[in-house]
Amino acid sequence: MATRHGQPGPAETHSRERFLQAALAILVDQGVSGLTVRNLAEAAGSSTIGVYTRFGGRTGVLDALYERTFELLQEEFARLPPCTDDPATDILAFAYAFRRFALESPARYGFMFERAVPGYDPDPDIRALAQRNTFDPLVERISTATPPGTDPAIAAYLVWTNVHGLISVELTHRERTPPPGWFMATTDESYDSVFRAGITAMTRGLGLLGR
To answer: How far from 89 is each of 73, 114, 129, 142, CA to CA, in Å?
Structure first.
């Protein structure tokens, strides 16, 4: 898509893809701190000039990577089964797809949804695309189940933030030793149970019931 850094021509597509795959690998293996122009050039088997030529610099790399990560999340949602007449089940399936994606690569999730790169503000057009690909599908799942007088977008936003909150806290706890006497077991089963309970409680609290 066109961004503040321009649209690459057809001849550049394959080359840019090689750089993007390298950037994804760096993000997963080293985190955002590894996303330097020099590291990317080395991982892609190129020079720093090659990075500047294709992306205009580090910000262009980050924009392209931001766009690609949301494309990957969209692909995760595309694999969900069609919506049923049970909105609670449909919303839970969406939430679990989000959680699987985050657990697969916490660094990628942090890059997408947290201010992992100080001072970086993604291109507005790419942010709009990210919304259409990942937030709007949740609005669609909720719109048929919102009570009269309830804005589906607001209801979706509340579910969305609940999902993010549960995921972010889980990722943090998985990286740290729990304090003495912590009430929750740090097991996959325990995290899964709390996540399900949290999403279910939000869904019921918003009255998102089938009609």
So the answer is: 20, 28, 26, 11
- Token pair 């609670």 is found at 88
In the chain, how many domains are there? 1
Token look-up 């030793």 returns 177
Q: Is 49 contained in some domain?
A: yes
Give the whole-angstrom CA distance, residue 135 versus residue 157: 8
- pLDDT of 98 over the 70 cut: yes
Q: Tell me, what CATH number does 171's domain have?
A: 1.10.357.10
Q: How far apart are the C-alpha atoms of 114 and 164, rounded to whole Å?
A: 10
Q: Which of 31-35, 103-107, 151-155 has the lowest mean pLDDT?
A: 31-35
Q: Report if residue 159 sits inside a domain.
A: yes
Count CB-CB contacts under 10 A for residue 124: 10
Three-state DSSP class for residue 86: coil
Residue 3: inside a domain, yes or no? Answer: no
Share of the chain above pLDDT 90, in %: 63
Instruction: Note the Cα 29 to chain centre separation in Å.
Output: 17
pLDDT, mean of residues 79-87: 88
